[in-house]
Hints:
- There is one protein chain.
- By secondary structure, the chain is mostly helical.
- The protein has helices at residues 12-30, 40-56, 65-77, 82-88, 99-113.
Amino acid sequence: xxxxxxxxxxxxxxxxxxxxxxxxxxxxxxxxxxxxxxxxxxxxxxxxxxxxxxxxxxxxxxxxxxxxxxxxxxxxxxxxxxxxxxxxxxxxxxxxxxxxxxxxxxxxxxxxxxxxxxxxxxxxxxxxxxxxxxxxxxxxxxx
Length: 143
């Protein structure tokens, strides 16, 4: 049997110092929050979703309303703001729904998908009245 090779990266103290230094650099360079720590894959995914949302909402028959809701909810989860999404999304006139029909539809959507409340405005629906808010990643409260 071969002897176990020594750790070439240094002592545990040196490793701990590197980890703390990396965290310090990330916090002071990029800030804190969900959008601050974003790797290349997440940035490309965000760009892809924004492009698809912009292309898909150019025409009224582009994206289906559920696809718009899913894309907007995902982008909000990635740290995109409602204001930046409003610049990208083109809102088109939708058929008018009776208030009770709209309320029932939104309640069913809220229980099935748990979209963020802000997402409903992008398809012309009012947010659910008494829907529980979905906790955001990194949240420490049990909302």
